[in-house]
Amino acid sequence: MRKTLLLFAAMHLPWGWSQATEIQVDKSQKNLVRFISDAPIEDFDGTTNEIDGYAIWEGNEPLQKSEIYLEVDLASIDTGIGLRNRHMREHYLETDKYPRAEYSGKLTKAEKQSDTVYKVATEGKMTIHGVENPFAAEGTVTVDGMLFRVQVSFPIKLSDYKIKIPKIMFYKIDETMDLQLNFYLRQTKEQ
Amino acid sequence: MRKTVWVGMIWLMGTTAVLAQGSQARWKRSSAGSTSDLQLFHSTQVANLYTAETLQQSDILFEISHRFFPPVSDGGDALFGLDGPVNMRLGLGYALSNRILVTLARANVNDNVDLWVKYKALQIRSSFLPMIIALQAGGAWNTQKYFGRDRGDSRNFQYYGQVIANTLIAKKLGIGITPTYLQNTQIFSTDTENSFTLGAYAQYYISFGYAVFVEWNPTISGPRYQYNSFTAGFELETGGHFFKFILTNNPYINPSQFQAGADVPFDSDNWRLGFNITRLLKLKTGQ
Questions:
Q1: Dihedral sign of CA atoms B36, B178, B154, B64 in order
Q2: Scanning every residue of chain A, which has its alpha carbon at the shortest distance from the alpha carbon of B30?
Q3: A&B contacts, CB < 8 Å
């Protein structure tokens, strides 16, 4: 009888989220998603604070079982110039049809660099403009009590997501955009 | 007993299997849509009348506008009025926040120095009829020295306030009304008198960067120069710049002077040419 119960416990643990830690994007912090584009005449960047989502992992082994979901409201991206914003929303990102960029994946690396800083990596799927692609990125997580600051940057190739290369007035911008994310997640109460 | 344990086990394993498949996260999307400010018209003004739009915090808007005094009907010898003389305005706007825009400008007519503040007060999100209501208040000081009157004479000051209501139909047709109260309409009249006007305008966005517009500014009560003002024009937007080319019967540009009315009727003998050019300057990029 005792054996059976132990067997059950052993089978149970790796499957469930018995002691999950969940962190959610803290919208009261200064979150920033920044798109940087090289263009022959002038570089420009677009920014938004509208990032949301969560990460959840089990116990002390976040690499074994984790889930990350992040989304960015693309209609809120501001390039500083109204005409460019409208052009981007209506002709290229088509935010009426595809309002959000969505990423879901899992944690694949978490190396401790110091008491509070971790080097992390994630793998999963990115959906932008209605097109899904495999995606991987590395970044830094700085832990301050219940607050987790994430800094990550990566390139996005526009053609991978069937986004036409914006021709901003008379010149074209680069096919690859650099993204820089700097945002905060706050731990919710233990489950 | 053994049976109970087995049943319990199967139940628990079933539960954990379900949990393992679905997400356990308690996160929920916090807002349905974008919380960024609504924007209907592309520019902060049509030609002479203002829209409910403001700028992004810490943006600067530089403006240079001309109204050519001789009418187009003077013909080629006067280059259709472009030879001048010309009424001109130089302005500099600054966005204190995403919803508050302050502008300081000077027009050469009576050396009119004008300062106004606009506040984007109310935004109604609707896919059918989105609306923005803004409040604008300003004061003008006519600083030119005239015989028998000090620069600081109270009659050299004019004040105005207006409500601006905008909507945009099908992302193409912008419509606005702007009831305006102007104090001390005519600075040289015997008594201080005030006017009430009911400005209205429509702007049609033809395609990327191109638009046409009309403005009408009837005086409802109080003194008026001679005629109600009517303006029609074409707008070219190039990302940071607006070029507005206009035909109008009103040769004045600063609000306290424009609101006082036009000196000639709007007919083909009296059309005057004019333009506004604005340039947006970004102090801050990114954050």
A1: positive
A2: A52
A3: 97
Using alpha carbons only, give the angle B172, B178, B180 rounded to the nearest 5 degrees. 165
Residue-wise pLDDT tens digits, B115-159: 999 999 999 988 889 999 999 999 999 999 887 888 889 999 999
Nearest to B105, CA basis, from B119, B118, B88, B84:
B88
ipTM score: 0.72
The pLDDT of residue B17: 44
The model scores a pTM over 0.80: no
Residue B57, min C-alpha distance to chain A (Å): 10
Q: How many Å is the maximal CA-CA distance in chain A?
A: 78
Whether residue B285 is predicted with pLDDT greater than 70 in this model: the reply is no
Does A52 reach chain B within 8 Å, measured CB to CB?
A: yes
- What's the DSSP call for residue B90? E
Q: Give tens-digit pLDDT for A13-42.
A: 444 566 788 899 998 999 999 988 776 656
Instruction: Give the residue from chain B lying closest to A105, CA to CA.
Output: B23
Q: Which helix H or strand E contains B233, and what residues bound it?
A: strand B229-237
| Phi then psi dihedrals of residue B10, to 5 deg | -65, -40
* Chain B contact set for A16 (CB, 8 A): 15-16, 19-20
Inter-chain CB proximity A8 and B2 less than 8 Å: no
Half-sphere exposure of A107 (CA within 13 A, CB side): 22
